[in-house]
Specification:
Layout (H helix, E strand, L loop, with lengths): L2 H13 L2 H7 L4 H15 L4 E3 L4 E3 L1 H24 L6 E8 L1 H6 L1 H11 L2 E8 L2 H9 L5 E4 L8 E9 L1 E5 L12 H4 L4 E4 L4 H12 L9 E4 L2 H9 L4 E5 H9 L4 E2 L9 E8 L6 H19 L8
Parallel strand pairs: 3-4, 3-5, 8-9, 8-10
Antiparallel strand pairs: 1-2, 5-12, 6-12, 7-10, 7-11
Helix pairs in contact: 1-2, 1-3, 1-4, 2-3, 6-12
Family: Belongs to the LysR transcriptional regulatory family.
Keywords: DNA-binding, Transcription, Transcription regulation
Protein name: HTH lysR-type domain-containing protein
């Protein structure tokens, strides 16, 4: 069975349109119709219900789609295993966040360059929420974020997870005793952008101990550099991944706080759209997984210019 026809089934089901699938696959609508007709004839079932505005999968089409996705994915993985690195070339857009930039992104980019010298990376650094939106809008090919992205046709790979710690400037003199959250919210809390996973976790932790989040002065920023600068200046406290603040703690610019209660780990994912016609995001996603694993095995790198 022609895997190109199976790929056509996948894109028609995702885009709910023969014409849009033709544009995506750089062919004609007639060619798309012929491929689907051939599949329906070979399989002996009707795959799509058609009307004037859109197409939708039949129950048989739903079952066929799951098999088609598995076959196309395995075919892509076979191609990846046989690729010569000197034949891989192109441009891939990667969206990521500050926490990953300061943790292991330089090592990842260096690995990409040394492994695939003819691959160029366009890098965007923003919040996880914004990078997720860019991924769904097709503006980035690979997202390295605090995910996942729960949308049909996207694959999420576990990258890494980091413990988070409450930190403050030594000058506040609040690190010498155990604190409850009710004591902590007497100080401004610096957090990532409103609606982000870390921001929501701070709100949830406050609510879990029966406090009103409205009582807390939570100041949000999409810049990790801004947050760490404000906290180092003694303007408040923050809950941050330990990988981000390790060097600042070692340099005694920040201290960890003994705050009563568990702190959830922060989980990161590599997210890309499963597109058999574009193997670069798949290649780089696996390289990101490997880079994150090496960082956690070898320990945290030094971080500068925060």
């Amino acid at each position: 069975m022609n895997t190109k026809f199976l790929e056509t089934l996948i894109w028609v089901s995702r885009l709910r349109s023969f014409s849009n699938a033709a544009e995506k696959l750089c062919t004609t609508q007639a060619a798309i119709s012929n491929r689907i007709a051939t599949l329906e004839r070979d399989l002996g079932v009707q795959l799509f219900e058609r009307d004037l505005r859109s197409v939708s999968l039949t129950p048989a089409g739903e079952r066929a789609l799951s098999y088609a996705e598995a076959i196309v994915r395995l075919t892509a993985e076979l191609k990846l295993g046989l690729l010569d690195r000197h034949t891989v070339r192109g441009r891939v857009s990667v969206g990521t966040i500050d926490s990953i930039v300061y943790a292991w992104l330089p090592a990842f980019l260096e690995t990409v360059k040394s492994t695939y010298p003819d691959v160029n990376v366009d890098l965007t650094v923003d919040t996880s929420l914004n990078i997720s939106r860019m991924m769904l809008n097709g503006e980035v090919d690979l997202a390295l974020i605090a995910g996942p992205v729960l949308s049909q046709g996207y694959r999420n790979l576990d990258l890494c997870s980091y413990d988070c710690v409450w930190v403050a400037a030594p000058r506040l003199q609040i690190h010498t005793r155990q604190m409850a959250l009710v004591d902590l919210i007497a100080h401004p809390i610096f957090a990532f952008s409103r609606g982000s996973q870390p921001h929501q976790r701070v709100l949830h932790m406050i609510e879990e101990v029966g406090l009103d989040p409205q009582l807390a002065r939570i100041l949000t920023s999409n810049s990790l550099a801004t947050i760490t600068r404000m906290v180092r200046e003694g303007m408040g406290v923050a809950l941050l991944p330990d990988v981000v603040v390790q060097e600042m703690i070692e340099n005694e610019e920040l201290v960890t706080l003994d705050v009563h209660g568990p702190v959830p780990r922060l989980h990161f994912h590599a997210v890309y759209r499963e597109d058999p016609g574009n193997l670069l995001p798949t290649l780089l996603a696996q390289m990101a997984v490997d880079s994150a694993a090496k960082t956690q095995t070898l320990g945290y790198p030094a971080m500068h210019n925060v």
